[in-house]
Amino acid sequence: MRLTAPRIAPLTEAELTDDQRAVLAPMIRAGRPVLNIFRTLAHSAAALKGFLGWGEYVLSKKNDLPAREREIVILRIGYLCKAGYEWTQHVPIGERAGLTEDEVARIKQGADAGWSDADAALIRASDELHHGCFISDATWAALKRHFSDKQCMDVVFSAGQYTQVCMMLNSFGVQLDEGQTLDPDLKGF
Q: How far from chain centre, in Å, is Cα 28?
């Protein structure tokens, strides 16, 4: 976590306007807790509505990357962006998608940490997008050996979405949700 307190505090139930409550209503109706990220972004109901629409694409089956591979990209971006909140949220999602505890640990080490060619290409693509906003020809060719054009597009879409998420989390100081703990390796993020 980069900040120890929020710069923009998550809204409480009592603070929500009708517009904010309307955007958060699907989460509330589903019986899920409304996470700090959404309670923070609700300060701008219109922005949150747009954000949720694009995020739904990235996290849905409309994204042609298999969930495990998508989570490799998301976790690598979260790690590179030093976004403790994002990492904490997506480790269990990645594990449910098929990542092992060892693989999650190796995401921190990068593409040369014993990955298959396909997984290494995803991590290299994430690194290149993070550092230069561009996938090199060599990495693109490696992706194309394993993924369709649409899946390669979804690598970029996923990395871009989660770069934006990390920027918001880090800059707004979104804190972990109740009951969560930060990975000890990420202290000082």
A: 21
